[in-house]
């Protein structure tokens, strides 16, 4: 019998048997967007290109081509950057387009949930500030779409794990 494939964070793709794993630690230490929305974006872009090409109208082809030009790369970038934040071996792993950045707890300056009102709707964000290897402070802002969960809950969990409580 083959073993389940391992994800980049060291968790196996399938949870182990019910007796040996803790539900809180399975999903609690990895946050990222789901695959449904990015896949739908890619399918929308491909479908728009097909409709534009089948229609034969040059203006329609340009407009659907522009739609595909923005929607397909956005979906691909979201799929590449999964999981967005993960706790691996006591360090915070932040997935970016150029690779993964590992941040130890001592380098995290602040992890804070923000509430922003836009157009009368309250939107919650997570603000993560850390010091990189060169000694520069880096500010990352994550939305619910980036994390796949409520940013307030992710912030609380990171603080519980020891990230964001220290200052340099």
In summary, what is this structure?
This protein is an alpha+beta fold and 168 residues long. The protein is built from 5 helices and 7 strands; from the N terminus they run αβααββββββαα. The longest helix has 23 residues, at 58-80.
How would you describe what is shown here?
Strand 6 and strand 7 form a beta hairpin. Helix content is 38%, strand content 27%. The radius of gyration is 20 Å and the shape is elongated. It starts with 22 loop residues before the first helix and ends in an 8-residue tail after the last helix. The N terminus is likely disordered. It has 168 residues and is α+β, with helices and mostly antiparallel strands. The strands form 2 sheets. A 4-stranded antiparallel beta sheet has the order 1-2-3-4. Strands 5-6-7 form a 3-stranded antiparallel beta sheet. The longest helix is centred in the middle third of the chain and has 23 residues.
